[in-house]
Amino acid sequence: MRLAGKVAIITGAGAGIGRATALLFAREGAEVVVADCDPEKGAETVSLIKENGGAAIFVQVDVSKAADVKKMVKTSVERYGKLDILINNAGIYAQADVVEAAEEEWDRLLDVNLKGVFLCSKYSIPEMIKGGGGTIVNIGSEAGIVGIKNQVAYNVSKSGVIALTKSMAIDFAAHNIRVNCVCPGTTETPLVKAALERAPDPAAARRALEEVRPANRLGRPEEIAAGILYLASDESLYATGSILSIDGGYTAQ
Ligand SMILES: NC(=O)c1ccc[n+]([C@@H]2O[C@H](COP(=O)([O-])OP(=O)(O)OC[C@H]3O[C@@H](n4cnc5c(N)ncnc54)[C@H](O)[C@@H]3O)[C@@H](O)[C@H]2O)c1
Questions:
Q1: What is the Å distance from ligand 1's center to 13 Cα?
Q2: Active-site residue numbers?
Q3: Coil, helix or strand for 204?
Q4: Rounded to whole angstroms, how far apart are CA atoms 115 and 62?
Q5: Claim to verify: residue 179 and residue 195 sit in the same structural domain
Q6: Ligand 1 pocket member 243 (CB < 6 A)
Q7: Is there a single domain that holds both residue 174 and residue 214?
Q8: Measured between alpha carbons, how far is 19 from 234 in angstroms, rounded to an integer?
Q9: Is-contact 250 26, C-beta < 8 A?
Q10: Which residue has a Cα nearest atom 32 of ligand 1?
C-alpha cells in the first residue's frame, strides 16, 4: 500500500495509461480522482476501481479550460480534504508536418498536451502547499526526447512538457513539491490503436512501430503505470526534475 492515505488526481484516467494508473493507485491505497473529458469512460474507470474495493470519484474536465480545471481541484479537495498527487496524463495525438498542419489542430494539440499541464499544475500546487507538499508526474513521450517524423505538434508539445517539468521542479522544491516526468514509448492504448487503424495496412504499421525499438514490441499501459507509481510515491523522495524513459530502449539508440 505505497499510496495509503494519499489523494491523487489523474487526468485522462478514462482510458489507456491513465486508467491503468488509476487502477494501480487505488490498489496501492490512494483515493483517486478520475478526471476526464469523457464521462462514460471516466465512470467505467470508477466502477472498475470500486469493484476492486478502491475509492474513486469521477470529475469531468477539459484540461485546456481553466474554469474546468479550477472546478476539478475544488471538487477533489471538497471530497477528500486535501491533494497530494497530480498525474498530468491527458493528451491527444495528431499527424502532420509544419506545412500540412492546420493552425487549429496545432492550437488544440498544444492547448491540451502542454497548456493542460500548466493549468492543472497551476491550480493544484497551492492546495499541495497548504498540505505541506506533494508530487506531480507529467506524462511526456519519447517524441519529446527525439524527433519523430510527421507529428510536429505532438513532438513540440511533449518537449514542452519536459521543459515544464524541470521548471516546476526547480520553482517548487522549497515547498516540498517534487515534479517528475515519465516518457513512454509506443504503448498499446486506444490512442495508438486508433492511429494504427487509420494506417493503410495496420498490421504492417504495427510491425514498423515494434521493430524500431530494441525490445521489439509495444509497451503495455501497466508497464508505464509502474513508473508513474514510483515517481508519485515516497520511494522516489530524492527524485525531482527527472525524466524517466519507459520506451523499450527507443531513445537509447
Ligand atoms: N500510447 C502511447 O503510445 C503513448 C506514448 C507516449 C506518450 N503517451 C502519452 O500518454 C498519455 C496517455 O495516452 P494514452 O495512449 O493512454 O491515450 P488514450 O487516448 O488512450 O487516453 C487518453 C484519455 O485522455 C482523455 N482526454 C483527452 N483529451 C482530454 C482533455 N482535453 N481533457 C481531459 N481528458 C482528456 C481521453 O478521453 C482519454 O480517456 C498522453 O499524454 C499521451 O500523449 C502515450
A1: 8
A2: 154
A3: helix
A4: 11
A5: no
A6: no
A7: no
A8: 21
A9: no
A10: 62
